[in-house]
């Protein structure tokens, strides 16, 4: 078992209370590491380091080109160490090794993308009517507090850190209590990549004791949060006292809509991939599967047959398609919804814990059908491999059901009728809409939600915008006095 320290001001440190908490392997419920249990005082130390690094020292003098090169070097290092990172990620969060390998590759791509973007942040010349030069300068927003979940631990860290570094901000990142390990491993490479001390600080701890003080801290200028809607709402309230900029990515209850004219084989695969990838622990999971009545019975049957072949197993075995859930807490939560589903719909497959593997937080891929959209399993984010299949009669009804949710992160529509596809795409109230696919995510394209799925966008040029301020500069070109008084 490895004991980790936190990374503050370029150094490995303990919490001031010297306390640690355990980190588990969810596939066998064993402790694999322990990390410092940070509190408000530790958060303050990290924020002070980030503040000092932003206000003085080497970072403000670092050019955009150099920030870009730092990100390229980080990308290169992540690629070099990808096998080790992927293995640790799978051990810590339970996702199949093949998925961790994709995640780590995406981490490197994310650093590269923002490395390139660092030198493409442009200001503006404003066409004011006076004899003056009016400019809009883009400047880094300052110290960013970044709070992330456990479903894509290293990738969420990269989505947060890369645009912030590119913009010239400094960061205090708090990984999820369950999954801090890969971010801590990566911190060991920051200095080699050229990051001055204090630019990126990583603190480990719990939401209430380490996350909340970060949100409330008066020296933090912005909070970037990914996680549950309930915590997101608290963050907005906590951030109000110091009027911080906040961006939120809060998950959803995304509809995956299948019309009768869709390619049937592709549709079945897309329905399962949409909701079962990463054990269903995906903010954009297509957890409401809306199916046109003309193909409904055939669809439920085919999806069930195919789901029977999903191989559950240890995350590090290459043939595994579904690993354990991340934690005991999440396992119990998903088990609760599996039981609830039996009262709200009919079981097509799953609904419990598999007989094997005997240990670990495994649950069966579960499909409920004949579910009403008003059911709790169709309204609440489960964050596990549990799908609710809902029939619909026509396009109007499909759109109505799809939008009948407080969330609006993602949606997908499957059809070969391009006119229908465009009508539905336009009518969907969601930040991401896939057509004849679900889940592919690219650093070049915007990511974020409508409605209670949050606000702000990550990735692409939108992602760096969230770390920039705009300063108006007015340069008077008249040599005469103003002549008013
Ligand atoms: P969560 O409680 O929202 O946790 C997300 C992050 O926020 C974690 O780092 C967490 O720290 C931190 N946090 C918790 N309470 C906080 C507070 N009062 N102030 C500041 N930070 C705080 O999510 P979870 O407990 O990991 O999972 C619960 C549910 O959230 C899931 O079942 C799922 O529905 C949803 N979820 C959504 C996403 C998404 O991508 N949208 C991701 C993960 C989970 P701790 O790790 O110490 O709790
Ligand atoms: Mg939590």
Descriptive notes:
There is one protein chain. The chain is α/β, with parallel strands linked by helices and 485 residues long. It has two domains: 2-250 and 453-472, Aldehyde Dehydrogenase, Chain A, domain 1 (3-Layer(aba) Sandwich); 255-435, 3-Layer(aba) Sandwich (Aldehyde Dehydrogenase, Chain A, domain 2). It is 38% helix and 21% strand. The protein has 16 helices and 21 strands. The strands form five sheets. A seven-stranded mixed β-sheet has the order 15-16-17-14-13-18-19, with helices on both faces. β13, α10 and β14 (288-292) form a beta-alpha-beta unit. α2 (64-80) runs antiparallel to α4 (97-117), α2 runs antiparallel to α5 and α4 packs parallel to α5 (153-167). The radius of gyration is 24 Å and the shape is globular. The termini are far apart. The protein binds NADP nicotinamide-adenine-dinucleotide phosphate (NAP) and magnesium ion. The site of NADP nicotinamide-adenine-dinucleotide phosphate (NAP) has 27 residues, from α8 and α9.
């Amino acid at each position: 078992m490895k004991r980790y320290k936190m990374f503050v001001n370029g150094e490995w440190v303990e919490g001031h209370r010297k306390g640690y908490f355990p980190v588990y392997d969810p596939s066998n419920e064993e402790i694999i590491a322990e990390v410092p249990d940070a509190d408000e005082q530790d958060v303050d130390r990290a924020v002070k380091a980030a503040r000092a690094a932003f206000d003085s020292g080497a970072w403000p003098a670092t050019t955009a080109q150099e920030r870009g090169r730092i990100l390229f070097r980080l990308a290169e290092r992540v690629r070099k160490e990808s096998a080790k990172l992927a293995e640790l990620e799978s051990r810590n969060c339970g996702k199949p090794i093949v998925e961790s390998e994709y995640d780590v590759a995406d981490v490197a791509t994310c650093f590269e993308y923002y490395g390139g973007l660092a030198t493409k942040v442009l200001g503006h010349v404003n066409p004011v009517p006076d004899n003056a030069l009016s400019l809009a300068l883009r400047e880094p927003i300052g110290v960013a507090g970044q709070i992330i979940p456990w479903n894509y631990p290293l990738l969420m860290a990269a989505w947060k850190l890369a645009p912030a570094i590119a913009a010239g901000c400094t960061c205090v990142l708090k990984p999820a209590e369950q999954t801090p390990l890969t971010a801590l491993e990566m911190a060991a490479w920051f200095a080699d990549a050229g990051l001055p001390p204090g630019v990126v600080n990583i603190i480990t701890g719990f939401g209430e004791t380490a996350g909340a003080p970060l949100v409330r801290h008066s020296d933090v200028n912005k909070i970037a949060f990914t996680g549950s809607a309930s915590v997101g709402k608290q963050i907005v309230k906590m951030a109000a006292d110091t009027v911080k900029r906040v961006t939120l990515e809060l998950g959803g209850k995304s509809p995956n809509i299948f019309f009768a004219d869709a390619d049937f084989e592709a549709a079945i695969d897309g329905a399962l991939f949409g909701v079962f990838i990463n054990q269903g622990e995906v903010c954009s999971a297509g957890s409401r599967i809306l199916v046109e009545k003309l193909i409904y019975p055939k669809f439920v049957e085919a999806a069930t047959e195919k789901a029977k072949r999903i191989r559950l197993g240890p995350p590090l075995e290459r043939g595994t398609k579904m690993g354990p859930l991340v934690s005991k807490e999440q396992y119990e939560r998903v088990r609760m919804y599996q039981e609830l589903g039996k009262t709200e719909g009919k079981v097509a497959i799953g609904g419990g814990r598999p007989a094997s593997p005997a240990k670990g937080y495994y649950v069966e891929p579960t499909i409920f059908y004949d579910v009403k959209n008003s059911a709790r399993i169709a309204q609440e984010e489960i964050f596990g491999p549990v799908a609710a299949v809902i029939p619909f009669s026509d396009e109007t009804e499909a759109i109505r059901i799809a939008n009948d949710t407080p969330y609006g992160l993602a949606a997908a529509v499957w059809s070969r009728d391009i006119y229908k596809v465009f009508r539905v795409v336009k009518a969907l109230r969601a930040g991401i809409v896939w057509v004849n696919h679900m889940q592919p995510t690219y650093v070049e394209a915007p990511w974020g939600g409508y409605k209670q799925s949050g606000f702000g966008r990550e990735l692409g040029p939108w992602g760096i915008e969230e770390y920039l301020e705009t300063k108006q500069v007015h340069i008077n070109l008249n040599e005469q006095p103003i002549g008013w008084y």
